[in-house]
Amino acid sequence: MTKHAAAARIRAMALVTALLWGVSAPASASGGADGADGGAVAAEAAGRRAAVCRAAFERDWRQYNRSFDARDADRLMGHYLPDASKIDPDGSYHQGRPAIDGLFRGLFTMDFTSEFREVRRTVVDCRTALLIVDSTLVFPEWQSTERFMSALSFTYERGHWKVIANVSTPSAPPAPAPAAG
């Protein structure tokens, strides 16, 4: 792994870890010497901007899912930054859009069904967002099911939310029901 790739991986993991634990940068001060009215106006403007950013996140996340469901790797890659990173449930690491593109193109050649359940969503202003997703892929040909949790870290760039890191870990299989007795 190159020095640049290692640094990008460390940044992505630090961001995901910070967001998982609910840590974010402190909000910048607004208002100032112009009194409470100026502060209220600034707070209202910040609230409107946050609502726009949350709506943009919802729009972009729906488009991401439509791209995945359509098995359209070209459209899906439009949701990733050029230097994004992806870590698969098996621990394999993919740095950059071309590597991630190859991974999804390979997946999209397979016969599978997918189910994704959103576990947690955190949108921090118009800076960053984290989405935790419980994912299941079923491959009928191999009679195989893959369950994993994914943490997708986003950044807001030019009016669109882009994935900077997509980190997946295996999920434990469901525990068997206790025996009646």
Describe it for me?
The chain has 181 residues and is α+β, with helices and mostly antiparallel strands. Helix content is 39%, strand content 33%. The chain has helices spanning 3-20, 35-69, 73-77, 97-108, and strands at residues 80-87, 93-95, 113-124, 128-139, 144-157, 160-170. The chain has a 6-stranded mixed beta sheet. Strand 3 and strand 4 (128-139) form a beta hairpin. 18% of the residues are buried.
Strand content of the residues, in percent? Answer: 25-35%
Could you say which structural class the secondary elements and strand pairing correspond to? Answer: alpha+beta
What integer value in Å does the Rg equal?
A: 19 Å
What is the straight-line distance between the termini?
55 Å
Query: Count of DSSP E strands?
Result: 6
Outline type? globular
Alpha plus pi helix count: 4
Looking at how many chains there are and whether they match, the oligomeric state comes to single chain
- Overall pLDDT score: 83
Biggest sheet, spatial arrangement of strands = 2-1-6-5-4-3
Helix and strand sequence: HHHEEHEEEE
Classify the helix fraction into a percent range: 25-40%
Q: Extract low-pLDDT stretches.
A: 18-33
Largest sheet: 6 strands, mixed
Write the layout of secondary structure elements.
Elements: H1 3-20, H2 35-69, H3 73-77, E1 80-87, E2 93-95, H4 97-108, E3 113-124, E4 128-139, E5 144-157, E6 160-170
Parallel strand pairs: 1-6
Antiparallel strand pairs: 1-2, 3-4, 4-5, 5-6
Features:
single chain, about 180 residues, alpha+beta, six-stranded mixed sheet, 4 helices, 6 strands, about 35% strand
